[in-house]
Design a protein that fits this description.
Blueprint lengths: L2 H15 L2 H8 L5 E5 L4 H12 L4 E4 L3 H8 L9 E5 L2 E5 L3 H10 L5 E4 L21 E6 L5 E7 L4
Parallel strand pairs: 1-2, 4-5
Antiparallel strand pairs: 1-3, 3-4, 5-6, 6-7
């Protein structure tokens, strides 16, 4: 078997070994993420850049974060410095790209995701000015009735 046929066989076998869901997810383009934020907020800008580097297309609105949060029905107790909307889901605060992708793949009957406050070490709040500090925080799955459960914890000792 020549080298070209061997490579083709290996690539075909590797592709067949991937779960169908992973292949579909890799081919499906992400919906546009709309973000409402303060025009002067550096951490919001850093969070947007983090998501863009991860492959998200982000449309930024430099105003209306609080009004949009209210309009989308997200309770104030989950508030942060920016509010997003993607695929019909609210994204509040410094949510990790991995959890946004998980939300879009699993499509739970929920309002969206939230990282309340501005935890140091979360995406966008990881500037060198914080000296590498990483505060523990949770990504919450917020239900339509306003309740929430922890979807993923970060920096917690087990």
């Amino acid at each position: 078997m020549n080298t070209m046929n061997r490579r083709q066989l290996l690539l075909t076998g590797a592709t067949l070994a991937l779960p169908a869901r992973a292949v579909a997810q890799a081919k499906a383009p992400l919906p546009v993420l709309q973000v409402w934020k303060d025009p002067n907020c550096g951490c919001c800008k850093d969070w947007v850049a983090y998501l863009q580097a991860d492959g998200f297309t982000v449309q930024v609105h430099d105003t209306g974060n609080t009004a949009m949060r209210r309009r989308l029905g997200l309770p104030e107790r989950y508030a942060s410095c920016h509010t997003g909307l993607i695929g019909g889901y609210v994204i509040e605060g410094h949510v990790n790209a991995r959890e946004i992708r998980r939300l879009l793949t699993e499509k739970p009957p929920a309002l969206g995701l939230a990282v309340p406050g501005m935890p140091v070490g979360s995406p966008g709040m990881d500037d060198p000015v914080y000296g590498g500090r990483q505060d523990p925080y949770d990504v919450l799955l917020v239900q339509r009735d306003g309740t929430a459960r922890v979807l993923q914890s970060y920096f917690r000792r087990r």
